[in-house]
Amino acid sequence: MVLSERQREELNRAVVDYLHSQGHTETLAAFLQESEVGSAEQDKKYAGLLEKKWTSVIRLQKKVMDLESKIEEMDKHIQSGGGIKKKSSAADWIPRPPERSSLTGHRMTITRVLFHPVYSILVTASEDATIKLWDYETGDFEKTLKGHTDSVQDLAFDQGGKFLASCSADLTIRLWDFQTYDCTKTLRGHEHNISSVCFLPSGDFILSASRDKSIKMWEVSTGYCVQNFLGHREWVRCVRVSPDGTLIASGSNDHTVRVWSVASKECKSELRDHDHVIECVAWAPQVAHAAINDAVTGEEKKDGRSNGPFLVSGCRDRTLRIWDVTAGVCLLTMVGHENWVRDVVFHPGGKFLVSCSDDKTLKVWDIKNQRCSKTLEAHSHFVTTLDFHLTGPWVATGSVDLKVNVWECR
User: Fold this and answer.
1) Which pLDDT tens digit goes with each residue over 47-95?
2) What 3 state SS string does 183-242 have?
3) Strand ranges (E), 231-287
4) Whole-number Å distance between alpha carbons of 186 and 158
5) Most buried among 37, 205, 281, 283, by the most CB within 10 A?
6) What band does 174 get if pLDDT is binned at 50, 70 and 90?
7) What is the 3-state secondary structure (H, E, C) of 321-333?
């Protein structure tokens, strides 16, 4: 391959920077003389350029190998008489075995996995008091964020991914600048283990839930607690805000899900059909409303359809329940897990729910037909957490087995 004059100069300067940074003085002197680059003093734009180019090549090679293996699979399928499958839409993609990659590095149970909304970064939290960053496409470890002194329980990004919030059993919430990876604020006020955290859609406020039975709202700019939500009688395990930012849902050891108004700060409803600890809650996106209504009233019937909002809860009673928040009633119950349900998310396409459990599985639920359509043996121990990428075909799971598995959807 013939390089242009500009490409050759850029490569030579990148090599000079690399040799200089590694201290190879004799090789550098010889290279400077033969390449006619001139001085070893380089423009900052060449700093680390050779390493960046090299890692980019490795990533591209891995992608090429993945594509070649997929082409080989398709060739075998066609040759065996299977024909060419009709291409499914992204709304129908679900995680398929085997896992794309298995990430190891945490020393204790994985408590949370979370995809960055923009970059190809997966963030994980653990009982080992650390937060780790990974490139989920390549499986490469990127960085560790340290600051908490006890188990990190939950993570949340603001909508743009500029800030990361983490909460811990050390009674603090930390706010991290995701450009510099510095901890910019530490919020204190809870009197016991902080189990859940999330941003309001505006990004101006953070919500936290704690074993001290309270939910607190914090102003991001000042770090001050501006509101307490009191009503749960036991440990508040989880808190999540509705997509429009008007409602808050919380689940507790008192076996209830409570829905709160952000504007009035009052509890609007108390949902009571579960008979054990509520581990997780998730709001249904607008795109899921049709599937929920089809399941309740039938696809043909247009009468009696609800505008929502809808909410799903996962419980230690091994069930998932979908609620009509306005009516305060349970619409659907999903039964199939053989142990505690630990986490649940809606598929971005709206047709499915995805849940994980202490039965070591990941389950995909067809909402409209009210059945489990796929079960993956996800880990060798309890599966504690999961996340579904909002725009890409990726699901991540974390476990007591100390592994984070990344699954590709197709």
Assistant:
1) 777 777 777 677 677 777 777 777 877 777 677 665 545 456 778 899 9
2) EEEEEECCCCCEEEEEECCCCCEEEEEECCCEEEEEECCCCCEEEEEECCCCCEEEEEEC
3) 236-241, 247-252, 257-261, 267-271, 278-283
4) 16
5) 281
6) very high
7) EEEECCCCEEEEE
